[in-house]
Amino acid sequence: MFSKVKNVKFNNGHEMPMVGLGTYARKAEPGQFRQAVEWAIELGYRHIDTASSYKNEVEVGEGIANKINEGLVKREDLFVTNKLWNDNHAQDAVVETLKESLRKMKLDYIDLYLIHWPISVNANGVDTAISYLETWKGMEETVKLGLAKSIGVSNFNEKQIQELYDNAVIKPVVNQIEINPTLTQHQLVNLCRKLSVIPVAYTPLGLISEARPEFVGKDAIKTDPKLGEIAKKYGKTRAQIALRYLIQREIPVIPKSFTKSRIEENLNVFDFELTDEEMATVDGYNINHRCVPGTSFVKYTYYPF
After folding, report:
1. Residue 214 pLDDT exceeds 50
2. What per-residue confidence (pLDDT) applies to 2?
3. Helix locations, the chain, DSSP H
4. 65, burial (CB in 10 Å: exposed 0-12, middle 13-18, buried 19+)
5. Can you give 164-219 as a three-state secondary structure string?
6. CB-CB neighbours of 202 under 10 Å
7. Which helix (H) or strand (E) holds 111?
8. Does position 3 have pLDDT exceeding 90, yes or no?
9. Distance from the Cα of residue 20 to its chain's centroid
């Protein structure tokens, strides 16, 4: 069906599959998340990505439990990522927040726990300006207690990831950020590599995604003949070419889908290799456009963009 999914090794020795199932959705039907997780595990995924803010931890946990109970996988075969939301950044709130996520998912530990955004708010959405350095101390405690095997961050810019790295006792293993052919992020990716922090791509298709309208005023990327020719050459879709581009940059990807055929397609990117010229073509689609700009956070302390 597909070539074996490759892993990346963290700076602490743990490993993570290079393709994970993203589970964020603005709207969802009952059972949608559970079904997607079950399909993904059946199809060969071993990396599942969720977050407390997605409000799907119970269903994601049920999907995992069902496949473990069927004997298809063991817990240690799976890599599960979860994320700390902005309203629990106080150092003493981190451990209890993760414990609550674990209760919802019916898991004993998380493989990777991330600070979802560097900003902090209270329950009413008011900026609390808690330093992510304070939050990180709580994150380190989750590792010491065995609740998380690895810890990292998401949406941190260059200054923030450098400051965190310089001050951390337990170093972050990951910075999960938006990276795709229309937001290539070479500078931030290079810094992460220098720090031995793995850059992980969410929204990995960018504007190539069929779910997104064509970007007004720019070249028609989705319909560009060059991209179509590359896809045709390998018998792949444009989306698979975008994912392969990131894989060849040694960047793990978290594509999200709730369609079984698309979930399968997103994993089937390890049986071909783009040429240097083709990599340059895909890289040339960069227009530094953020699909996830976090504009509602602009006025908050530590807003990263």
Report:
1. yes
2. 52
3. 32-43, 57-69, 91-105, 132-144, 158-167, 186-194, 225-234, 238-248, 260-267, 276-283
4. middle
5. HHHHCCCCCCEEEEECECCECCHHHHHHHHHCCCEEEEECCCHHHCCCCCCCCCCC
6. 21
7. strand 110-115
8. no
9. 7
Contact between 135 and 94 under an 8 Å Cβ cutoff? The reply is yes
Which residues are paired to 251 by β-bridges?
A: none
Task: Find tokens 């040694």 and name the residue.
Answer: 250
DSSP class of residue 3 equals P
Q: SS3 for 153-167, per residue?
A: EECCCHHHHHHHHHH
Q: Give the pair of three-digit tokens for residue 268.
A: 């089937």
Chain-centroid distance, C-alpha 74: 22
On the question of pLDDT at 1 being above 60, the answer is: no
Q: Which residues are catalytic?
A: 54
CA atoms within 13 A on the CB side of 221: 29
Of 189, 282, 183, residue with least CA distance to 233: 282
